[in-house]
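Hi U.,

Before I forget, here's the chain from the pilot set. I'm dumping it here mostly so it's searchable later in email.
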Amino acid sequence: MFTGIIESIAKVEDIKNDKGNLQITYKSSIAKELKVDQSVCHDGACLTIIETNGDHYTVDAIAETISRTNLADLKIGDGVNIERSMAVNSRFDGHIVQGHIDEVGVCKSITENGGSWIFEFEHSGKNITVEKGSITVNGVSLTIVKSQETLLSVAIIPYTYNNTNFCELKVGSKVNLEFDILGKYISKLIKNNKTL
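Structure:
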């Protein structure tokens, strides 16, 4: 489990296609602290480390993960938000993040707003969102400002903008979205006509 509080930005150093899977090598300031078989969230997608080498490490992404995320669009030099799994004895600063991407969203607008930024993202509308509810965008735990059927917006403070890959996003950028797990359970119960 993760919290959506980003530890660092890892840079893509190499991408290899292996029978439909991707082996992605990253350079990171925390690579020396990572271990083989450890789960690390990459732009919100939980991936397992298969190799470490100094300030580099490699992960595997299978076809199912690739089909639900923006991993296929990665290029050498891209920055990716990373977070290690939550420690049992640490504070829970974000919200419950599983590292299981629901879908890819598209950035529709970026507006400066008196020292912060409002990012608007389009999604399929298959998952519900609510204003002041939680959403994970590229692994970052955020509060939804406005919620519409297929659009949502979030406010980004300067610290988040400067310490995640939000500073690299442009209109048209694809992002990984993980919707709130509680909202997904409630939505399924409603669709199945069950009461809480």
